[in-house]
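ASSEMBLY PREDICTION REQUEST
Request ID: AP-0331
Submitted by: J.K., bench scientist
Number of chains: two
Total residues: 842
Priority: normal
Notes: Please return the full assembly, not individual chains.
Input sequences:
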Amino acid sequence: MNITIGQYYPTNSNIHKLDARTKILSTFIYILAIFFAKSFISYNLCALFLIFCINISKVPFKMLLGGLKSILIIIIFTVLMNMFLIRSGDVLIKFWIINITSDGVIMTFRLVARLILLVVGTSILTLSTTPIALTEGMEVLLKPYKKIGVPAHEIAMMMSISLRFIPTLIDELDKIKKAQMARGADFDTGNIVAKAKSMVPLLVPLFVSAFRRAEELAMAMEARCYRGDINRTKMKKLEYKKNDFIAYSVIGIVFVLVLILR
Amino acid sequence: MDFIKSKNLKYEYVKVEDDNKKEIIEALKGVDINIKKGEFVAVLGQNGSGKSTFAKLINGLNTLSGGTLFVKGLDTSEIDNIWEIRKNVGMVFQNPDNQIIATIVEEDVAFGPENIGMPPEEIVENVDKALKAVSMEEFREDAPMYLSGGQKQRVAIAGVLAMKPECIVLDEPTAMLDPKGRQEVLSTITRLNKEEKITIVLITHYMEEAALADRIIVINNGEVAIEGTPKEVFKNVELMKKLHLDVPQVTELSYYINKANKKMPNDVLEIESFVESINKIGLKKGFEYKKVERETEEEKEPILEIKNLSCIYSEGTAFEKVALKDVNLTINKGEFIGLIGHTGSGKSTLIQHLNALIKAEKGNIYFKGVDINSDRKRLKEVREKIGLVFQYPEHQIFEATIYDEVAFGPKNCGVDGEELDRRVKEALSFVGIKEDYYKKSPFELSGGQKRRVAIASILAMKPEILILDEPMAGLDPFGRDEILGNIKRLHKELGMTIILVSHSMEDISSIADKILVMNKGCVEMFDRVEKVFEKEKRLEEIGLSVPQLTKVFSRLDINVSKNIFNVKEGAEILISALEK
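STATUS: Completed
Returned structure:
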């Protein structure tokens, strides 16, 4: 059985080897840059930077387009809304009640470019970083905000336990499904109501089992002296390497340039 | 020095019934248990005897309600001592999946040390040592989900070891494992005890595991029933049976023989010493015993035929795995077949093919002459006629009442009205669930009862063939005997054809007509029980064994037929074979 969570695509590139914190913060700065960008040239700069990153990451372009597929509907909706509803600027096409103006076209272009840059950019983060590394990076980055009540450790613990148990529960669901089929249950035929009803024999045992597991896990964690983030150490400390500083410099330069050229 | 010292230890809790009636349950009624440092103690007892409660008290997961319990001189009822106690007493639980926290083996082992604030360099060192101690160092970067049950339990033990405890408490650590995994865990435990001098408290209901300990404590109904070395404990054959616990077959044999012939010691634990004692007394020259088999020569009618069945998972990819290789079998009506084989031998794949949960891609399966995959629309009918009870069937329970739970199967097959009612009641009374339970929630039942309800839900579909995948797994001897009794009656009274998957040769030999041994996707043997047991050497080569009774007879210099599986019968034969 082979279940992949998230979309991690291992190529062992230099981007993959970067510290998760570097990648998360860089992605954050990159998103900021996109929102600051207004001019044609600054957009191009962001796009160039993105292509540069894709190139180093060695992730096939096809994988990145996968992320776009899921937001296709949003893109189409944005295009239609902006094209038809913006009325300022020179009228380019007039047809029945539809008015397409120059401002509309520019705005549409800008928004679509922004969306694509955003989605592809964040995809690189998830494609080049394992979920567990992402979790660890988030925990360390959120730590300073603990004072204002951000439960950094708890969030990270929840994430990593989910990552650990999702495959187990998927496995279990498969077993339950087979067992109910052996009892004559039918999951494939019937209308929507019948299909929804047929989920009950799957979901109830799955939830019961998830709760049982949670209870047992909690006990096992307590037995191993777990008491939240009190007096806790880490076997592996995240450490910045040379490449991380280079990455920070590059993203910094791109950000400053975008600000200047906006 | 006593590492664990309890005096008049009590634990009670309040159980709320569905009608809001409160009932105080005394799980431990004042026990005095002392465990020395470096000792290996096994705690035996039925489910609900209080043995798990005792384990949780040691670790501070439960707090005592009376008496005293000191661990390493620390009072467990003192809340400030809890972390120090948990650091020194590691705990390993039954379900390997539910105690591994991290997604990578070494990270999981590091979890405990991280919690107690060990410096990182020390953690790395301790994780290395712990993984080595359980022989799992080559898996340190692996994801736990790809490990076998035995390997997962070893990771769990390593996770405890990395905290440098002086004592490890294991609460039924092998109940969910196959024999291979069980062996791995047990040899790890004994090695840790012998080499690292770690105090071991092993809670179990397998007598062969308890026999490895220095001392056994039998807990029954919240009280210590028997205490002593394995020899001292197991020789109380009658008392152990009364407490619904097992004793090794050789011990039972020696006990019966001792009653008739005092020269025989009554506390033999191993086959070698048993054979030695018998030979010392001397056997009659040329003793012979032939048990005539009631071979029914009536016409055998094939009910299930498997022809050239093969199955390959993920064919053509890197994950390719041959699960079944050219399997040919004919199963006759009314036969009782024991199916045995290691995890990965193909037995699960085979039984899922038999009721068309997996479609036969290569080869055919005929039920009463009709190919079960010939008409995919009639699958429900196939599944109705060939019932399959999965492993841990109680995990599929979902209805609000026991009655509805059992009605689910037949309803799916289009049964309704009086017929449905009749079937549900029949099935439930067959597994011994009384009428006043019908409206109760199945989730309120005990483990063994839940399992019987789950089996009833298949029985209510009126199958002609019943396949059970390890129906006794994880149950205590009492629950096991109840289920075995039910299955026996299905075969005898209803004449049902039965395929029983089990890891226990003892269980299978006592009820099956034929044994099917699977190995690496192939049928290794398929023959009458005694014929299969004749090939003891080959069975051991593929990691299986024959019952102790069979071993004893094959090692003694007498001519006794191989079809003796009952210990009392075996003892009688041996008594008459011994020199006076």
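REVIEWER COMMENTS: The longest strand of chain A covers residues 91-95.
SIGN-OFF: pending second reviewer
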